[in-house]
Amino acid sequence: MQLIIFFNGWGMDENAIKHLILDSGYKLECINFPYLTDHINFSNFEKIFVIGWSFGVFYASKFILENPHLKCYSIAINGTPYIIGHFGISPKMFNLTLETLSNENIFKFYDNMGASRQLLTKAPNLKQLQNELIYILENQPCKHASFDKVFLGKMDRIIPYSKQLKFYQKDSRNIISLDCEHYPFKAFTNWRNIISETNEF
Predict the structure, then answer these.
(1) Which residues, other chains included, contact 38 with Cβ-Cβ below 8 Å and sequence gap of 6+?
(2) CA nearest to 97, candidates 27, 159, 39, 142
(3) Which long-range CB contacts under 8 A does 24-28 form with residues at least 24 apart?
(4) Phi-psi region of 140 (alpha: psi -120 to 50; beta: other; left: phi over 0)
(5) CA-angle at 96, arms to 52 and 35, nearest 5°
(6) Rounded distance, CA 73 to CA 88, Å?
(7) pLDDT tens, 124-155?
(8) What is the 3-state secondary structure of the chain?
(9) What does the alpha-carbon distance between residue 62 and residue 68 come to, in Å, rounded to a whole number?
(10) Residues 100-111: what's their mean pLDDT?
């Protein structure tokens, strides 16, 4: 059995990736805020894929650094370990998002991601979303894990493609640019499309 640990984006739940086909022989753990993995017995799995999307890249990097004993194949999708700053969202925009958090603005955020609202959580928990933003603001990393493969959306309006590309050109040998927005999963039908080490589509 092989394990896929998927660190989800901010405010997302399993709806974001429910359409992706999971082949037999794989188990999927979709990890949302507060991104806890204590319930997983990693010794049960022959191979572990660690995938972070959007803000989930921050948590995937953190997970890899905190579990150096685990041999993982790691993938970042439309995000860097540094959510705020030169390789992420500008501090001004991040703070504005925190200060103006509302249901209306959350759904505008979903729209800017290029995602159908039907695929995403229908009842955002504003307090939980606020807590996550505060956590990120107060726990910005000073180091990061490198990723084996990176997918970047050329039309990303949340974390600009140019910023992500600049970061990963120095940090990854396997960068795949996609004609997609921040929400990338319309480009995939199967988890195999993402985890394949041969870039299978």
Answers:
(1) none
(2) 159
(3) 25/1, 26/1, 26/2, 26/191, 27/1, 27/2, 27/3, 28/4, 28/191
(4) beta
(5) 25
(6) 23
(7) 789 999 999 999 999 999 999 999 999 999 99
(8) CEEEEEECCCCCCHHHHCCCECCCCEEEEEECCCCCCCCCCHHHCCEEEEEEECCHHHHHHHHHHHCCCCCEEEEEECCCCCCECCCCECHHHHHHHHHCCCHHHHHHHHHHHCCCHHHCCCCCCHHHHHHHHHHHHHCCCCCCCCCCEEEEECCCCCCCHHHHHHHHCCCCCCEEEECCCCCCHHHCCEHHHHHCCCCCC
(9) 11
(10) 88
Q: Which residue has the tokens 């992706």?
A: 20
Q: Which two tokens stand for residue 51?
A: 């995938």
Amino acid at 167: F
The residue behind tokens 């870039």 is 199
